[in-house]
Amino acid sequence: MHVAALSLWVVNLIGSIAACCTTMSLIPQLIRVYRLKSAHDISLIMFLVFSLGVFLWFLYGILIHSFPVILANGLTLLLSLAILVLKIRYDRRPGSVRSAKIEKA
After folding, report:
1. What are 15-66's pLDDT values in tens digits?
2. H or E segment to which residue 11 belongs
3. Which residues contact 19 (CB under 8 A, 6 or more apart)?
4. 67-91 and 44-64 helices, crossing angle to 10°
5. Distance between CA atoms of 71 and 13, rounded to whole angstroms?
6. Which domains does the chain have, with CATH numbers?
7. Cα separation of 77 and 52, whole Å?
């Protein structure tokens, strides 16, 4: 189906639902990391690359003046960075799985 056949309202609705799904998908992970005070199951490299990608989408939204792209990626970036901060913080605590591996080496 060609986009021109769809009304602009439907196209924006699809984009808004997609943005909500991808942004909200990080909330359960953030809650889990915070409650467990552990993020050893999370790949630091993956979240760094993911956060960079989201930042670039955010920057792209600014450059094309797209409020939905800016909003969705801005919120996603905040959630992603919160998970990264907690990961680094919890991995550096004495007794964490990561710090125990470093101490053994």
Report:
1. 889 999 999 999 999 999 999 999 999 999 999 999 999 999 999 999 999 9
2. helix 8-24
3. 68, 71, 72
4. 160
5. 15
6. 3-97 (1.20.1280.290)
7. 9
3-state DSSP helix/strand/coil percent for the chain, to nearest 5?
Answer: 80, 0, 20
Two tokens at 4?
A: 């021109």
**Unique residue bearing structure tokens 């799904």:** 21
| Pairwise CA distance, residues 79 & 23, whole Å | 8
Single-letter residue type at 3:
V
Q: At how many degrees (to 10) do helices 67-91 and 26-36 cross?
A: 20
Q: Model confidence at 13, in pLDDT bands (50, 70, 90)? A: confident
How many C-alpha atoms does 71 have within 13 Å on its Cβ side? 9
Give CA–CA dist 2/5, Å, rounded.
5
DSSP state of 95: T
